[in-house]
Design the sequence.
């Protein structure tokens, strides 16, 4: 895909609030049919990046082209090609599901007839066909999210922007959203997603950009990131009642790992070959888990384990 | 370093209408109770005060007290309705329901949204004012002769107080803030603008100052029209309210831009 066709092109974006640099030299490219995920802890600059590229805040330097148009100068027109699912639901509580879609369609200049034709297919896509005449306050959290997704698709956007779309949802609701998003990707829509759910990023993303403190600190497909940034195997060791024995075990195992980290009650040992570790653990009552490294390990390695403030 | 700003847009009437329409559709769900409330409340005031005080005050500027009070109530009700919509309802849509945030994600600008809100608040207050005009005209307390001018003037009054109200909404952090507007501006203005008693009862200095109040200007238009004749300084008052509305709306836009597009 050539750069002219990219739905989103961000070059060296920098945004400051006073003395604080919130986004620092960020570059992104998103072609059609792909999902780009911005992954980062709280305060990494994900939401500010979205605000910049939709034209809701001006930035200090860099360049953004959204659907081929320069932002913020022509952001309003560019938004005609974009659907947005915000972090917090902002559906219209006065309206039913159908009315929410019909009213929203008007903002995009759809005629009454076009909007009416589009509503049933969107409601069934969102699994809300049976809730067409239900008022928004009577929907569950998952239903509200699905209606927000349907609303963002009313004008057949080429790019879908989702800001932490499944935060606060139960696993069933989350899986349903993911399934729908994969369906949209197959249909050729481009998706820009921010999340701090590793599973979400691993399931959906073609490309992941890990952000921390406004900077891009790693980039690649989920597999690339795992292969490049981290050892392939992880042994998790759980501290029992006997702290001294556990400490002794950890000391004994230390040379067998290429890297070791402790987070609360758990010690994470990273290694290429787990066989010597397993041999050393044999006959030991220690509780442990051997698993392949995942995106979360990459994320924690790159952004650290300490708690971030909102 | 200069702080970068999102470029300002010129509000577009067609796009603003979609916001107006959204508010109208939401209002329609509660239209009957809303209209009745808008009508019954001022009517109780009007006929209560009009007949109660009317027995004590038999003659105000050569008219029965109720006849004097009718144009005052039309204007006062329009002002209150526009203020409530531009303050509380607009604030709810901006801050609580995040309706504006949802609309901003479409090809509408903040300017379009605010123009839609301004026109909606004026429309809603127009309905409240026009409802009283209708009832009092049928009851014979308001002249039908100048209705063609009275009805658009009521819309202008609505625009003026909606635009002023939006400034407060742009500055408000919570609903409590709006109390200042009502207790320090709206209520005293109601007493100084000839709603309940004629300005001629006020001391000379206060009367002159009071004429600068938008409500006094509004009443100087509404009262003669409701009595069936042309206002004395009609053009000056219309210009005053128009310029004040434009200035207030421009200021409100600047404040909202700073608040929401920072």
Sequence:
């Amino acid at each position: 895909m050539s750069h002219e066709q990219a739905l989103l092109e961000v070059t060296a974006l920098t945004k400051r609030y006073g003395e604080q640099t919130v986004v620092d030299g960020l570059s992104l490219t998103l072609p059609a049919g792909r999902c780009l995920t911005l992954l980062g802890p709280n305060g990494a600059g994900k939401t500010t990046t979205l605000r910049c590229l939709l034209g809701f805040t001006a930035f200090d330097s860099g360049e953004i082209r959204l659907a081929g148009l320069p932002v913020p100068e022509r952001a309003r027109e560019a938004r005609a090609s974009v659907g947005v699912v915000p972090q917090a639901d902002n559906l219209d509580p006065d309206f039913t599901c159908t009315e929410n879609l019909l009213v929203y369609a008007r903002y995009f200049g759809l005629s009454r007839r076009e909007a009416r034709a589009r509503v049933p297919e969107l409601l069934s896509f969102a699994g809300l066909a049976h809730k067409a005449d239900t008022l928004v306050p009577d929907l569950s959290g998952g239903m509200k999210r699905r209606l927000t997704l349907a609303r963002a698709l009313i004008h057949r956007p080429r790019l879908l922007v989702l800001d932490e779309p499944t935060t606060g949802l139960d696993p069933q609701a989350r899986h349903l959203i993911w399934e729908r998003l994969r369906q949209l990707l197959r249909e050729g829509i481009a998706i820009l997603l921010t999340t701090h759910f590793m599973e979400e990023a691993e399931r959906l993303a073609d490309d992941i950009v890990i952000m921390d403190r406004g900077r891009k600190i790693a980039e690649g497909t989920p597999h690339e990131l795992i292969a490049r940034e981290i050892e392939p195997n992880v042994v998790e060791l759980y501290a029992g009642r006997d702290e001294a024995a556990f400490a002794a075990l950890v000391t004994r195992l230390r040379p067998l790992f290429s890297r070791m980290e402790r987070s609360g009650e758990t010690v994470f040992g990273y290694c290429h070959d787990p066989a010597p570790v397993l041999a050393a653990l044999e006959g030991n009552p220690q509780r442990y888990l051997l698993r392949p490294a995942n995106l979360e390990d990459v994320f924690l390695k790159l952004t650290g384990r300490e708690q971030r403030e909102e | 370093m200069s702080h970068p700003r999102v470029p300002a847009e010129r509000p577009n009437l067609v796009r603003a209408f979609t916001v107006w329409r959204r508010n109208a559709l939401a209002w329609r769900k509660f239209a009957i109770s809303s209209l009745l409330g808008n009508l019954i409340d001022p009517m109780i005031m009007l006929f209560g005060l009009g007949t109660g005080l009317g027995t004590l005050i038999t003659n105000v500027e050569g008219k029965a007290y109720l006849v004097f009070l009718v144009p005052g109530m039309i204007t006062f009700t329009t002002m209150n309705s526009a203020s409530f919509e531009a303050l509380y309802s607009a604030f709810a849509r901006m801050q609580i329901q995040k309706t504006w945030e949802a609309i901003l994600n479409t090809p509408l600008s903040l300017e379009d949204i605010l123009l839609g809100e301004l026109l909606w608040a004026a429309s809603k207050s127009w309905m409240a004012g026009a409802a009283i005009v209708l009832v009092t005209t049928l009851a014979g307390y308001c002249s039908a002769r100048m209705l063609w001018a009275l009805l658009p003037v009521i819309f202008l009054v609505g625009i003026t107080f909606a635009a002023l109200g939006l400034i407060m909404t742009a500055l408000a952090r919570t609903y409590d803030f709006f109390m200042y507007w009502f207790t320090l501006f709206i209520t005293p203005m109601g007493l100084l603008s000839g709603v309940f008693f004629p300005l001629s009862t006020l001391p000379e200095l206060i009367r002159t100052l009071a004429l600068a109040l938008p409500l006094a200007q509004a009443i100087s238009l509404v009262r003669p029209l409701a009595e069936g004749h042309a206002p004395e300084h009609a053009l000056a008052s219309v210009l005053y309210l128009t310029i004040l509305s434009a200035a207030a709306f421009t200021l409100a836009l600047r404040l909202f831009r700073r608040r929401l597009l920072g």
